[in-house]
Design goal:
Elements lengths: L2 H28 L4 H18 L15 H12 L5 H20 L5 H29 L3
């Protein structure tokens, strides 16, 4: 795919993502979450679906559940200057909520949601360790 095709596909996915984010915002508010919490979840998911999932390839949000480990265990640590233990935990929580929302829309199967939650539970300590390693290297100059 040439760059022009890539850009067109990204634009189409971003339009789909806009609709998903608007629905996700309403869903979060229906759950009784406060404005700051909703805003935090939206920012986290926007970064995941509009930056990470479109960085190397064009991956629609509903097909991105199996990319969580690559995101939180590597890409986020290297690309997000604000990467910290709390931001990794926050993103993990946001991703669980977002993919729960997609499950409720019948956009992902129950098994995929369960795998995502298990991945986060099992891999979170490794992601935090990778962050510590990365940060320690950043200061060894």
């Amino acid at each position: 795919m040439d760059y022009s095709d890539y850009e067109k596909k990204c634009a189409a996915v971003r339009q789909e993502n806009k609709v998903l984010l608007e629905g996700f915002e309403s869903w979060l508010k229906e759950k009784g979450l406060g404005e700051n919490t909703v805003s935090n979840h939206l920012n986290n998911i926007d970064f995941y679906i509009n930056d990470f999932l479109l960085y190397y390839d064009v991956i629609p949000a509903a097909e991105g559940a199996d990319e969580i480990s690559s995101f939180l265990g590597n890409w986020f640590i290297r690309k997000a200057m604000w990467a910290s233990e709390s931001s990794i935990r926050s993103n993990a929580a946001s991703l669980k909520k977002f993919y729960q929302y997609l499950f409720e829309l019948d956009m992902i199967p129950r098994e995929e949601l369960a795998e995502l939650k298990l991945c986060i539970k099992e891999d979170l300590p490794d992601w935090l360790e990778e962050l510590r390693r990365f940060d320690s290297l950043a200061f060894d100059f």
